[in-house]
Amino acid sequence: MGGKQRQRDEHSRIRLDPTGVPNLDAVLGGGLPRGALTIVVGPPGSGKTTLANQMAFAAAAMGRKAIVFTALSEPTTKLIAHLSTFSFYDGDLVGDQVQFLSLQNFLVDGLQATGEEMMSLAFRAGAGLVVLDGFRGIRGVDGDMQAARRFLFDVGTTLSTLGTTTIITSEADPRDPSFFPEATTGDVIVGLHYTLRGVQQWRGVEIIKMRGAAPLSGLHGLGLSAAGTVVYPRLEARVTRTLNHGVIPIAPPVTTLPAPAQRARFGLDELDAALSGGVTRGTSTMLVGPLGNGKTFLSLHFALTGAEAGEPTVYVGFRESVEQLLQKTQPFDLGPALQRALAPAGNLTLLRWPPVEMNPDILLEQLFEVLDRTHAQRLVVDSVDELFRAVSDYAPLRVHNYMAAMVEELRIRGVTALFIKESNQYSNTDLAFTNEPISVLAENVIQLRQIDERGRLHRIITVLKTRFSAHDNATLREFVIMAPYGIRVLKPTESEPGIFTSISEGGPLDAQPAKDGNGRSHGTKNASGSSDITGEGAP
What we know:
- By secondary structure, the protein is of the alpha/beta class.
- Helix content is 32%, strand content 25%.
- The model is unreliable at 4-12 and 507-539 (pLDDT under 50).
């Protein structure tokens, strides 16, 4: 009985064919079911024709014959000329493995005759995949709207019995209820979205219906380039599937305590000592501070310490280019170290995305590809504010889930991450990210600040939080940026007397604009209570 049951299971299992579209198979749940009627629906310019023909050429490259029927008034030569601009196009396959035929001569006889001719041509050619591009152009041939539904049913069912996969493209809003009656005939419905968000164009893909497989839910990014269409799966959906297909596993009873985790050092003795040897491996650290206070230098210390120890490291920058980082570090020991790490034999990969119209799905898809390819153990993001803004521009309510999914993916890979975040100069030590979406990144928090004591600026570093280990609760250290060290964290005995006392008493570090009874600002109060800036119109 067991053997017969296995045979029945094998026969009943649906075969999934690769689509040839990057990442689309993952979104579909494994590929396109062989023999399925697939409807690709979307507005003009969303990429329907490109997507369908990309799948046709992919099928032909794998040895299956494909026929592309067009319902357009323009000649098929024009379509071929358009497709030839994409890298998936292979002219050697055209005419034999991929045939392009127009339906214009058959449409005059009605939908039923057109469908019969399509099925006959597919049967004689032994086609494994059939594309009908532009269904909206033929649905009005017959005045009976039910005729369109019967056409789809007859074509899809007949070709399915031959093992032929059918792809129909149709111009419509994927969520338009008037499209639903026709959609019931499809085994797979792929919805393409193409909208304006502000002044920026945005494309997405959604698997609205999928028989025989479990697709990734929701909207996913879609790109059009010289390579054709590329799908960028939504990170949250991938993480949900990875974590036991969305089922929360029950943790087994703990019988032994885990061994102390290794540490990821900054290479700065005083700071590493305050962190009990460094940050815990596989955690996320927020490095918080105002502009110009040394956050980039400190993050470079973290990245280069890892790279020089043989740990593959990825540094993501949104603001400074490679040339600017090299110029910035040139007067310090960091300069030669950065050059060594960026050399082919080095362990540092530097990625830079200009902070302009960034697609958050594309960004993380490319980032995780680099992390996997380099087997990275450390990651620096400078800064997380740009990533936060990229997600907010697309979907503000998505930010928390996006950040949480990113952290989960980093944990799965065992990557130790450092995220830079800008803060106000007057932020005090009571930083709280509890109600902010980026709270998931704050497993460890290190704060940089700057004070003015007796007319001299002092930089202060504080370890505010380490979630999975002890740290020096009394950690208030002064640090300097100086050649040749880069950053040097001073011992308490090396700082001027009275600096840390001024901080604890709420001196210049925590100063806030003083206000009168009417709520008007009158400058900033210093430690003595007098205002540094007074009077109307003060600069």
